[in-house]
Amino acid sequence: MAEGRSLSEVRALVGASHGITDLAHKLHFYDQWAPNYDQDVAALQYCAPRLAVDCLTQALPGPPHTALILDVACGTGLVAAELQAQGFRQLHGVDGSPGMLDQAQARGLYQCLSLCTLGREPLPSAEGTFDAVLMVGALSDGQVPCSAIPELLRVTKSGGLVCLTTRTNPSNLRYKEALEATLDRLEQAGAWERLEARPVDRWELATSELEVGPGTSDSDGFISGIIYLYRKQAAAQAAGGRPGA
């Protein structure tokens, strides 16, 4: 691993990643970034993995070690590290970047890791497999399209949880609006119910002054984000069956 970058270098790098909207280009960028990813996002005080896992843990019934968890767009395994700290042991991960998966494999926290580019191909799991599915940090332009959200539901057990995050800084607001429209449509269709939408002021340090504005925590240079938590409804309800069926 290279010597740590300066904060200004990290901000420039992450700002560049936010600006890539072509998926193939984005995946190549992440492959190259993978060896230094953890130390770079730590420099930005990126806290989404910890906060998302905290949100999930508070809502998940039963002991953590019995729950089968899927970490979508798992990257280097930052979410897995937080899950392990909370007592979760049955962890599967998928990501579209081979370089990121190499780093995740080195952590030794996942029972199964798979190369999968969500939005271009289905998840490599059967319907109703997981007690909970998380996707942290991949919901933005050039990463996972909103159209892929139902695939997360497909692999979640009836009554299981889905935890999602996105940035709410100015450059991501258009994507967030489209994401929330997708989430709301699924709820209106009876596919899931929203348990929480938790705003977070201190998501990570802004990459530029342009990112510190409406919808951000501009007093300390942090951008904001949001965590969504949903529970998958029973199949009869999701299919339009009688309430309580």
Give the termini separation. 55 Å
Rg over alpha carbons: 17 Å
Q: Portion of residues in helices?
A: 25-40%
Mean pLDDT across the residues is 90
- Total DSSP E strands: 7
Structural class based on helices, strands and sheet pairing: alpha/beta
Q: How would you spell out the order of helices and strands?
A: HHHHEHEHEEHEHEEH
Give the helix tally.
9
CATH class: Alpha Beta
Shape: globular
Approximately how much beta-strand content do the residues carry? 15-25%
Number of domains: 1
The strand order across the widest sheet is 3-2-1-4-5-7-6
Q: Unreliable segments (pLDDT under 50, ≥5 consecutive)?
A: 215-219, 236-245
In the CATH hierarchy, the third-tier topology is known as Rossmann fold
Sheet having the most strands:
7 strands, mixed
Write out the CATH superfamily name.
Vaccinia Virus protein VP39
CATH architecture descriptor:
3-Layer(aba) Sandwich
Protein name: Methyltransferase domain-containing protein
Pfam families: Methyltransf_25 (PF13649)
InterPro entries: Methyltransf_25, SAM-dependent_MTases_sf
GO molecular function, one term: S-adenosylmethionine-dependent methyltransferase activity
Give structural notes.
The chain is of the alpha/beta class. It has one domain: Vaccinia Virus protein VP39 (Rossmann fold). It has 9 helices and 7 strands; from the N terminus they run H-H-H-H-E-H-E-H-E-E-H-E-H-E-E-H. A 7-stranded mixed sheet has the order 3-2-1-4-5-7-6, sandwiched between helices. Helix 4 crosses helix 5.
What distinguishing features does this structure have?
245 residues; alpha/beta; Rossmann fold; 7 strands; disordered C terminus; S-adenosylmethionine-dependent methyltransferase activity; Methyltransf_25
